[in-house]
Design goal:
Elements (H helix, E strand, L loop, with lengths): L5 E9 L3 H9 L4 H4 L3 E6 L10 E8 L2 E13 L3 E8 L4 E10 L2 E10 L3 H38 L2
Antiparallel strand pairs: 1-7, 2-3, 3-4, 4-5, 5-6, 6-7
């Protein structure tokens, strides 16, 4: 990470086994259920997914539409995966790390960006909004995965 990079990271403990969590977050059809501004997301390449797999997403953030395609740069089920856009208005990368903790999973979501030009100026306004949004999304993610897991365990 360069000196002019902005790193954002948030973690949450989800009381569900690590493989269930990994499968949920890598099934991009689930993303709009917990990611507030996600309009569309999906895999472009067919399974099995791994390094080099392509994805596409459309997100709205502070009124700006972002149509971003990218590539998976790390794939280590059920412990981590990372991504990097191939089409983005600014350099960005990120990923997820999962660590088994008791009967649950410590989930860490992170991203790094190198804003420049007008985006560099906007970061002072947008960064606090983005950080708050990520914290809220992680809470919703936890709630969704735990509820789905609870429902599955109730079925005979």
């Amino acid at each position: 990470m360069k000196n002019n990079s902005t790193h954002m990271q948030d973690s949450i403990l989800i009381q569900v086994p690590i493989d269930v969590v990994f499968n949920y977050i890598t099934d991009f059809e689930n993303t709009p259920h917990w990611h507030k501004n996600m309009k569309k997301v999906g895999w472009i390449t067919t399974p099995p997914h791994g390094v080099g797999s392509k994805y596409d997403w459309i997100e709205s953030f502070t009124g700006m539409k972002m149509d971003i395609g990218g590539t998976i740069t790390e794939w280590n089920p059920p412990y981590s995966f990372a991504w990097k856009p191939t089409t983005s208005p600014y350099p960005l990368s990120g990923g997820w790390r999962l660590v088994k903790e008791g009967n649950g999973t410590l989930v860490t979501r992170y991203s790094d960006n190198q804003l420049s030009g007008i985006y560099k100026w906007f970061q002072y306004l947008m960064l606090p909004i983005a950080r708050n949004q990520i914290k809220e999304e992680m809470k919703v993610l936890k709630m969704k995965i735990e509820e789905i897991n609870k429902q599955k365990s109730r079925k005979p």
